[in-house]
Amino acid sequence: MSSSATPHVAVIGLGSMGYGMATSLKRAGFVVTGCDVSADAVARFVADGGKGAKTPAEAAKDADIVVSVVVNAAQTEAILFGKDGAAETLAKDAVFISSATMDPDIARRLAKQLEATGRHYLDAPISGGAQRAAQGELTILASGSAAAFAKARPALDAMAAKLYELGDAAGQGAAFKMINQLLAGVHIAAASEAIAFAAKQGLDIRKVYEVITASAGNSWMFENRMPHVLDGDYAPRSAVEIFVKDLGIIQDMARNARFPVPVSAAALQMFLMTAAAGMGRDDDASVARMYAQVTGTKLPGAK
Fold this sequence. Notes:
The protein has 303 residues and is an alpha/beta fold. It has two domains: 8-169, 3-Layer(aba) Sandwich (Rossmann fold); 175-295, N-(1-d-carboxylethyl)-l-norvaline Dehydrogenase, domain 2, CATH 1.10.1040. It contains 13 helices and nine strands. The strands form two sheets. A six-stranded parallel β-sheet has the order 3-2-1-4-5-6, with helices on both faces. The longest helix is centred in the middle third of the chain and has 29 residues, at 172-200. 46% of the residues are buried. The mean pLDDT is 96.
């Protein structure tokens, strides 16, 4: 527990989301220590007035709250229980807020493992993108014990515009997030298919965008992602590989539940094909480029 009245927060993972969350916490008056595998990301955060740490253990040492903003379950587990992990130094009454998207069963296992040592675990996946992270306006889908919520609440309030309290145990937040990811992946794949098909028809795709966003076929993902296609700009805001991972988790969950998910299975294949074509690290709207390549269709920015 920090000795001062100002809670200390460690943010582990200073990528596009984590960096914004760390700056939002700092703006809200917390003492914030940033930690990342990239020394440059830590140096940037220190230059912006934060503190820096080289390992999760070092970052967690004086923290009341640790916010983990990494890509997946394996990285979350390594941050907690790996070499120089946060669980080594985390105070008994501190809370670990896990923001990675993962299988609910793994969230439950990690929570059980940490809670057995007397610490708190909040399963708290996030949605909203880098800009909303930087503004402190994320949507957080959280579940955990009353004690975990109580301990985490000041930090959650600083990071979120909408906080959903979805249950008293880890796993529920993860499950809600996976339903969101099922829809998000399907909608990106469908939007990409539609815009590439429109281009193949010889339509003015800027006009297509204008018409669809004012029509019943619109989706949040069509409206948000298709401008990347119109501009021929595939710098990753969210990469193709994210949906290879997340729709893969959906398949695993569905298989275990004996529940058919044919639409998301088809979307997964489109993301896999896009990744296989060398675009895995590019923006997820690259699914449209994959359709264009396969069909000889010209999109903006194509060589």
